[in-house]
Write a structure and sequence with these properties.
The protein has 173 residues and is an alpha+beta fold. The protein contains three helices and seven strands, in the order αααβββββββ. The longest helix is centred in the first third of the chain and has 19 residues.
Length: 173
């Protein structure tokens, strides 16, 4: 019986290592910007992009839930000044969204859970905003549009500096 020697390649061979190994096969599929670079430059760029993806992939924290809005006040076409905040809640059903205040803090929270055999979807959204002193928390109103934009408003005193907001009509073809 004779033995054949098989070369052995040993290293930590994870997902990103496999992507790097496939780079030379993939580079011909990339756009012209990549193709215009020499091979080593494009490979280096590919490695930086993979590293950025790897770092972002396992982040559980998306940052602080506290909002900092420089100019939260607008003046409507009639001349009324108001606090106006908008949130994208399009991935949530109306019953999954709650808006509440505690002292001078506004909290918007939405939570969606969906389960089916072999599949589970979980989404959660929390944003907090410290209301300006001029705003009465009891006068806040919220409206959820059909496309999922949650708009929260409250009247503001006339002394507040607010840019004038103009409504531009949308023509339908």
């Amino acid at each position: 019986m004779s033995w054949n020697l098989v070369p052995l390649f040993k290293r930590d061979f994870g997902f990103f290592d496999r992507q790097r190994d496939l780079f030379s096969d993939w580079v011909k599929e990339f756009d012209d910007d990549w193709k215009s670079m020499d091979f080593e430059s494009s490979r280096s760029r590919f490695d930086r992009e993979l590293e950025r993806i790897r770092k972002d992939m396992f982040k559980l924290d998306t940052g602080s839930s506290m909002l900092s809005i420089e100019k939260p006040f607008v003046t409507d076409p009639v001349g009324n000044k108001k606090l106006s905040l908008r949130f994208d809640c399009s991935q949530f059903k109306p019953e999954e969204i709650s808006v509440k205040t505690m002292d001078k803090r506004l909290c918007v929270h939405a939570k969606h859970t969906e389960e089916s055999p072999g599949r589970k979807v979980y989404r959660e959204f929390t944003k907090e905003y410290t209301l300006p002193n001029a705003i009465d928390p009891l006068r806040l109103t919220s409206i959820l549009s059909k496309d999922g934009v949650l708009q929260i408003e409250a009247p503001a005193p006339a002394s507040v500096d607010a840019p004038r907001e103009f409504l531009i009509p949308i023509e339908k073809l």
